[in-house]
UniProtKB/TrEMBL annotation:
Involved pathway(s): Carbohydrate biosynthesis; gluconeogenesis
Summary of the function given for this chain in its UniProt record: Catalyzes the phosphorylation of pyruvate to phosphoenolpyruvate.
Species assigned in the record: Streptomyces zaomyceticus
Occurrences of domain Pyruvate phosphate dikinase AMP/ATP-binding (ranges): 20-341
Cofactor(s) required for function per UniProt: Mg(2+)
Stated name of the protein: Phosphoenolpyruvate synthase
Family, as annotated: Belongs to the PEP-utilizing enzyme family.
EC number of the protein: 2.7.9.2
InterPro entries in UniProt: ATP_grasp_subdomain_1, PEP-util_enz_mobile_dom, PEP_synth, PEP_util_AS, PEP_util_C, PEP_util_CS, Phosphohistidine_dom_sf, PPDK_AMP/ATP-bd
Catalytic activity: pyruvate + ATP + H2O = phosphoenolpyruvate + AMP + phosphate + 2 H(+)
């Protein structure tokens, strides 16, 4: 056996060196030596070895003294007492002289390499059992930033060694069955990136919430990255669509969400770091531009391809040079371990009413219990099993408490915060970034925490009833009739990616306008017609946009793109806005632009708005958003659908307006469908088929207008029936005429979910597709399969 090598530069390490340098340092070495040709930049540095740690344990009988404390733990001594005792052993133990000399010599060589005397470095702990597929030790040991000078470096190294025995690390190894003294610690010393003068964050090479693999999610905040990882800030979040990255002419950034970023970590005057308030001018600004996002996403994709698994990556931007760097990379360990063939669905079974607080949903579960509001972690015996933890922000010291919670609610943090990451690992629902959870939620009150309603997590008063169902996707039958999804909420689109759906049969633009744009489009274009309060609110919403129309286009395009990406390359039918005038008037700034109508249901809606003087400019913004998604982002699976088109002349005028805005039917594969919801659409089906590429039946409106029944009338509810002979005959007639013209016919609505007999009618009529809500997909798939079997049997008997 040769002499101990105490320090190894990153340039001599690779991923096979986990046992020698720990997961973190092995990965840094792997990227340094293997991914430079892909453009990936890693700050230079070096690592102490596991052998050096073993030498430390062997000095002055340290190993035996640590073992004695572990024995005390197994005999019933309190964890916090044992942990403190072991850490004190390391903190008072001087580093062996060979290790100390090797670290200081490597530090001098690093200083020469980067051309700075006593350079600032990051000192990171790297356990030899860290970042394994079956267990993640990441975040359990300490990291020290802005360490400068020999004495400060040696002190930081000593504290890193001691951090191998934090209470949370001891507890984790106990639960996972790891021998405490079989896990060694390597220390990574890496040149600091001056992100205190710029920004930093995290990159996941899949959607961390749903596991959707076709996107890269970049989070970013101003200053050092510790505020993002710890959850102290609500960061920006940028979503990049992987397939669009292959074409340099396309914009792969399909979603941009600006976080509050109220704090940032910067260098402290006396060394290390401090947290300060983010200046107002930076809070609403993007940390990264599209070119920088694309660079980071390209690097992340290269790292993922090299490692062959989804990755969790930390990045930093140097404010002095403007350069981007990768400072850590590890395998993603939550979504990659989920069973992909089983879909678990939870839903509240009673109307929940108004939520007490809202934030970002983490996970898809529902939890409930009594609120336990805490400012700091407490002993486990003071936190009841199944309590709802409510606090400002969590860090690793909270993990023992988090394991006992039925749900977690924080004031601050985003989807890559500590609270979010740990709650995913634990399978505990969490609502993060509420802003006011600690102020609103009262200690001891019973609440229900729901993360099963899309991207927004909500906390409701009381213990609400809910149900949980599981579907084995591998057992769903194959059908000739396409079963598609109705999707409205872009934030929830990715959660359904595992469903074997044939695309999206209906994505409603008005939902995106109401919930993500929040402003009437004409109010953005004509602020002079608004009163002062509305004008002020709109100015705040659209801050940073010189052209207020661009705000509408950006928000709408991002919403459409998330839905389209979730099913790529399957077709996604996007219906242009179909608000009624009373609904439009309720949008921010909408009242001056909407007339009062006695019956908005059959009034100024759908196609009639698009070419009119009162909304033509607003429709142009919708067209700009759709064109950006298809032509700019490359999501050409988007099919545009026109609602409530009454006449052939109206169809011609709408198509002409679309062409004026660059949406020309047939160009770049653009298809345009029409809703079949008016008897005229059925009567003139052949003529409409000459103008449109397909039909989608809106069964509610078709029933209403065929039977002359207000679909919202309680008094006439007994008359309103999609299975009425007149309605069924209309569906059958449309299918025959459309198919004769070579046009597909689908139906989007709730009735197939509730009524297998109605599904059978649609299958018998020969419809090409049925589109339903995601939570009804499995049931409708079964209804369709049975109806197709029945139809085949009947056809066979008739042929005989």
């Amino acid at each position: 056996m040769g002499p101990i090598r105490h320090v190894v530069p990153f340039t001599e390490l690779g991923r096979h060196d986990v046992g020698r340098a720990g997961g973190k340092n092995a990965s840094l070495g792997e990227m340094t030596t293997r991914l430079g040709d892909a453009g990936v930049r890693v700050p230079p540095g070096f690592a102490t070895t596991a052998e050096a740690y073993e030498e430390l344990l062997g000095s002055r009988d340290l190993r035996r003294r640590v073992e004695a404390q572990i024995d005390r733990l197994h005999e019933g001594a309190p964890l916090d007492e044992v942990g403190a005792a072991i850490r004190s052993l390391f903190l008072v133990e001087p580093l062996p002289a060979p290790l100390r000399d090797a670290v200081l010599a490597a530090y001098e060589r690093l200083a020469e390499e980067i051309g700075r005397e006593s350079p600032e470095v990051a000192v990171r702990s790297s356990a030899t059992a860290e970042d394994l597929p079956e267990a993640s030790f990441a975040g359990q040991q300490e990291t020290y930033l802005n360490v400068s000078g020999a004495d400060a470096l040696l002190e930081a190294c000593t504290r890193c060694y001691a951090s191998l025995f934090t209470d949370r690390a001891i507890d984790y190894r106990e639960r996972m069955g790891f021998d405490h003294l079989a896990v060694a610690l390597s220390i990574g010393v890496q040149a600091m990136v001056r992100s205190d003068l710029a920004g930093a964050g995290v990159v996941f090479t899949l959607d961390p919430e749903s596991g959707f693999p076709e996107v890269i999610v970049v989070s970013a905040a101003w200053g050092l990255g510790e505020t993002v990882v710890s959850g102290q800030v609500d960061p920006d979040e940028y979503t990049v669509f992987k397939p669009s990255m292959k074409d340099p002419e396309l914009d792969p950034v399909i979603d941009v969400r600006i976080g509050a970023k109220r704090l940032k970590a910067v260098y402290a005057d006396t060394g290390l770091t401090r947290t300060v308030d983010t200046p107002d001018g930076e809070r609403n600004q993007r940390v990264l531009d599209d070119a920088e996002i694309r660079t980071l996403a390209g690097w992340a994709a290269a790292v993922e391809e090299h490692y062959g698994c989804p990755m969790d990556i930390e990045w930093a931007k140097d404010g002095l040079t403007g350069e981007l760097w990768i400072v850590q990379a590890r395998p993603e360990t939550v979504q990659s371990r989920r069973r992909t063939t089983t879909l678990t669905r939870r839903r509240l079974t009673a109307g929940p009413g108004e939520p007490l607080v809202e934030g970002i949903a983490v996970g898809e579960a529902i939890g409930q219990g009594r609120v336990v509001a805490l400012d700091v972690p407490v002993d486990l015996d003071r936190f009841p099993q199944g309590g709802v933890l409510v606090t400002g922000v969590t860090d690793p010291d909270w993990e023992p408490v988090m394991k006992r919670a039925s749900a977690i609610v924080t004031d601050h943090g985003g989807r890559t915060s500590h609270a979010a990451i740990v709650s995913r690992e634990l399978g505990v629902p969490a609502v993060v970034g509420t802003g006011n959870g600690t102020r609103i939620l009262r200690d001891g009150h019973s609440v229900t925490v729901s993360c099963a309603e899309g991207g927004s997590g909500r906390v409701y008063p009381g213990l609400l009833p809910y149900e949980e169902t599981q579907t084995d996707l591998a057992e769903l039958p194959a059908t000739r009739t396409r079963v598609m999804l109705n999707l409205a909420d872009p934030s929830a689109a990715f959660r359904w990616w595992r469903l074997p759906a044939d695309g999206v049969g209906l994505a409603r633009l008005e939902f995106i306008v109401a919930h993500q744009v929040k402003v009437h489009p004409m109010a953005l274009l004509h602020p002079e017609r608004l009163d002062a309060p509305d004008r002020h609110v709109i100015e705040r919403l659209a801050e940073g946009y010189l052209d207020r129309g661009d705000y509408f286009v950006d928000r709408l395009a991002h919403g459409i793109a998330r839905i389209a990406a979730s099913r790529w390359p399957a077709p996604v039918v996007v219906r242009t806005s179909d608000f009624k005038t009373n609904e439009y008037a309720k949008l921010l700034g909408g009242r001056p632009f909407e007339p009062d109508e006695a019956n908005p249901m059959i009034g100024w809606r759908g196609a009639s708005r698009y070419y009119s003087d009162g909304y033509r400019e607003g429709f142009a913004l919708e067209c700009r958003a759709l064109r950006r998604v298809r032509d700019g982002m490359g999501l050409t699976n988007v099919i545009v659908m026109i609602p409530f088109c009454r006449t052939l002349g109206e169809a011609d005028r709408v198509l002409a307006v679309m062409a004026d805005e660059g949406l020309v039917r047939g160009e770049n594969g653009l298809q345009v469908y029409v809703m079949a919801e008016i008897p005229a659409n059925i009567i003139l089906a052949r003529e409409f088929a000459e103008r449109f590429d397909g039909f989608s039946i809106g069964s509610n409106d078709l029933t209403q207008l065929t039977l002359g029944v207000d679909r919202d009338s309680e008094a006439l509810a007994h008359v309103f029936d999609e299975r009425d002979t007149a309605v069924v005959r209309s569906i059958q007639t449309l299918a025959v005429r459309a198919h004769a013209a070579g046009r597909p016919v689908g139906l989007c609505g709730q009735r197939p979910s509730d009524d297998p007999a109605f599904t059978a009618i649609l299958v018998e009529a020969g419809l090409d597709s049925i589109s339903v809500a995601p939570d009804s997909f499995a049931a409708v798939k079964g209804h369709v399969a049975r109806a197709e079997t029945t139809r085949e049997n009947a056809t066979g008997r008739r042929e005989e």
